[in-house]
Structures are given as C-alpha cells and as structure tokens.
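Sequence in, structure out. Go.
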Amino acid sequence: MTRNAKFGLFATLACAFVLAIALVGCGGAKKDEGSAAKTEDAANTTAASTDAGYKLVESGKLISVSDMECPPFSSYKDGTSEPEGFEVDLMKAVAEKMGLESVWLPKMDFDAIIPLIKQGGKADVGVANFTITDERKQEIDFTDPYYVANIGFVTKADTEATSTDDFNTEGIRIGAQSGTTGEAWAKENLPNAEVVAMIPSTAMLSVQSSEEGSDSLNAMVCDLPVATSLIEKSYSDLKVLESIATGDEFGIVVSKDNPELTKALNKALAELKSDGTIDELMNKWLA
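Output:
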C-alpha cells in the first residue's frame, strides 16, 4: 500500500470515528433532556402537594376507597358502578372545600381498606362508615367524627324472641361484616352463638330465608342506619329487634404518614358543619 493510500485510509477512519462520537453525543443529549423533563414534571407534582401541606396519590384529586356495601352511606346505583350515598356526597363536598376533585377507587373488602391506606400509593383516604377505635388508631389516623350511629340487631319480623339475649345460644348463627364493630359486639356479647362473616345485604337475605335446622343465619348485626335502609328497600320480612346503644363515631381513615392531610380534612369537615352542608346531606340520606 502506498503512502497516499495509507493516508487516505487513515483519514477515512478518523472521520468515521469523529462522526460516531458526534452521534453518541447527540443521543446522550436527547436522553439527558428527556430525563430532565421527567425530573421537572415530578418536581412540579411534588411541589403541588407540598404547597398544600399534604401528600396526594394524584395531584388535584382526593381518592377515596370503600366497600360500597352499606347504603345509605355508600353503595353502587342499581346496575351500575356509579357510587352514591351520604359518604359519597360528603367526600365530594370535602374535596370541593379543598379545591380538589373527588374520585373513588373500585370497591374492595372492608377489612382490606385500612391496610391499603396504611401502605399508601393507591388511595388517599378510606371512607366506609369506619368507627373510630383505639385499636384502629394504632395503624392509621382518623379525622374528627362526621356521624354517630348505633348498631341494629336484625331478625325475622315474626320472631318470638324479645331481646338479643335470646340468641346467645349454641346452634344460633349471627351474621356480621368482617372487621366491623358489629362483629366485635356480637362476639363479645353473644359468645355462645356462632358469628359468621358476611356483608349486610347477603346476611339479611340469609336471615330472611332462614328455616329451622338450616345453615342460614338466625340474625345479623350492622350499623343501624344501614339496617333500616336495607329493610325499607328490600327486606320487608325483617325488622330491627333491638337498637344497641354503642354511639359509634364514624371518621375518615388517613395514613399516619400524612398528618397534614388529616388537618386539611378536619378543616373542611368543620366548614361543612358550620355552613349546614352536613345537615343537608343527613336529611337527604339519613332522615
């Protein structure tokens, strides 16, 4: 190979090397630019939450979760996945006070809601007529109470029983939703009966269809407003045998890692009490 040929080959290789470096450099610049944009977007999202003093799963939205099994507090409209009820309207009003949009996740089991809020990342609050208890406070925080209710003990309308004591007998089966204060009350006060985990509507259906010697429920317990609502709408063969004066206070469930959100929710609830909104919603759904 001649000197000129060698020089030409060297020049060609050098140009190719420089071009490759330039392309890599351009590619790197684009990648850095994209990363910078993503970082900026994340910073903006964080800033939106920080400016308000609390964290949100999604900026501009207050995301709630419920079991949607307790009308008139929260349930789905017949044949739809559209939530309705006192708590649904309440959270919409709370969100509006906070300048946010109220959003609901698909329903989930009642006893899975507190672990979900404790874990974080999917919902901001749990709203499913949760009774404020010291035991639950060990895992999560509660807002101030927005409603106070007793427990209803439901039986067949034609029962010969006169009190809950008549059901504290071996062979008696009492329905109660898992993880609720109704379940806890039944286990404590009716120790000789069998307490069966079941959602309110299914439990009522079982009581209504019960026959002597069957595996159906003999009675069920749930929040009194839920009991009266379901009986009026769908279970006319049942009645509330006894109202149990528990004075359960309902609060919104919030993660312990988000105390500023609890404060903001309490402020909104106080304003809704003061301006009469909560009374209006109670008259609409719970009168």
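Check: The chain has nine helices and 13 strands. The CA atoms of residues 98 and 268 lie 7 Å apart.
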